[in-house]
Amino acid sequence: MARKPIIAGNWKLNCLKAEAEALAKGLVETVGTKSDVDVVLCPTFTSLDTVAKAICGTKIAMGAQDCYWQEKGAFTGEIAPSMLVDAGCKFCIIGHSERRQYFGETNETINKKAQALYAAGLTPIICVGETLQEREEGNMEKVITTQVRGCLAGLEAAKVAESVIAYEPVWAIGTGKTATKEQAQEVHALIRKTVADMFGDATAQAVRIQYGGSVKPDNAAELMAQPDIDGALVGGAALKADSFTAIINF
Q1: What is the pLDDT of residue 52?
Q2: Among residues 98, 130, 134, 168, which one is catalytic?
Q3: 14 phi and psi, to 5 degrees?
Q4: Do β-strands 164-167 and 123-128 pair in parallel, antiparallel, or remain unpaired?
Q5: 3-class SS at 78?
Q6: Cβ distance 124 to 118 under 8 Å?
Q7: Quick check: 194 and 234 in contact, CB under 8 A?
Q8: Are 206 and 2 in contact (CB under 8 A)?
Q9: Is 23 exposed, middle or buried (0-12, 13-18, 19+ CB in 10 A)?
Q10: What is the mean pLDDT of residues 82-105?
Q11: Quick one: which of 32, 113, 156, 162 has the most CB atoms within 10 Å?
Q12: Contacting residues for 221 by C-beta, under 8 A, at least 6 apart
């Protein structure tokens, strides 16, 4: 099965609205009509409306960086999936390692968020990844399979097939270090096998798995060439139109 590549830019805690507008418009000029790759921009909540207007009528989609699993109520500071839809989002990142590290995200809360996103008609980008210590101690496989199983527990196979999973080795995020193409492929294959064990081969062959962790124009092509790597979740390099465009045009 041919899986369409998906390149998502996670802008993290960057870009005021004017900066977000300029970046989005720059990308509209370079990749706004590109149809062989799904391009997703994930700005901060305050810039969602600005970016939505900038990409309107183009092939570029928008995603959020997080959500809550409740639709409404006394949850100060949270954002519901329906609000993301209302803002123009098609995707939402959940379980990013920074959310796990700094804000107490667990596989269980990520699972709740995934279910809420499905219910709202959004596509989750579900992040998994091991730390350097976990890798060096030989626990990578256990950590990854536990995360995948926990995040996807109880979900419908048809929904999982439409989802995106992002493998982000924590030791390679923002460090300048990148997993080798062999290391990345090994874990992507493990994730796909775990999905197959849970939901069957058809679902595993349909789900798209991105690599995230210091993706740059000079390493994008070799990563994308791997059989189980279906795109990239890009951090720092997504904040400049020229470098993000180069990755999209791998």
Answers
A1: 98
A2: 168
A3: -145, 155
A4: parallel
A5: coil
A6: yes
A7: no
A8: no
A9: buried
A10: 97
A11: 113
A12: 250
For tokens 């995200």, what's the residue? 105
Instruction: Give yes or no for a contact between 21 and 52, defined as CB atoms under 8 angstroms apart.
Output: no
Domain range annotation of the chain: 6-27+40-248
Give the whole-angstrom CA distance, residue 38 versus residue 105. Answer: 27
Contact 169, 135 (CB under 8 A): yes
pLDDT per residue as tens digits for the range 109-155: 999 999 999 999 999 999 999 998 999 999 999 999 999 999 999 99
Residues 11, 51: Cα–Cα separation, whole Å: 12
73 contacts: CB under 8 Å, gap ≥ 6:
none
> Is residue 188 flagged as an active site residue?
no
CATH 3.20.20.70, applies to 6-27+40-248: yes
pTM of the model: 0.97
Using alpha carbons, list the distances in angstroms from residue 235 to 42, 85, 175, 239. 10, 23, 11, 7
* Cα angle 226-6-165, degrees, rounded to a multiple of 5: 75
**Residues in CB range of 26: below 8 A, 6 or more apart:** 241
Q: Answer for the pair 207, 192: CB distance below 8 angstroms, yes or no.
A: yes
Residue 225: CB atoms within 10 Å:
11
Residue tagged active-site, from 29, 96, 105, 222: 96
The pLDDT assigned to 122 comes to 98
Question: What gap in Å lies between CA 216 and CA 247, rounded to an integer?
Answer: 7
Residue 174 above 80 pLDDT? no
Q: CB 150: neighbour CB atoms within 10 A?
A: 16
pLDDT in tens, 48-64: 999 999 999 999 999 99
Residue 42 near residue 63 (C-beta atoms within 8 A): yes
Q: Is 96 a catalytic residue?
A: yes
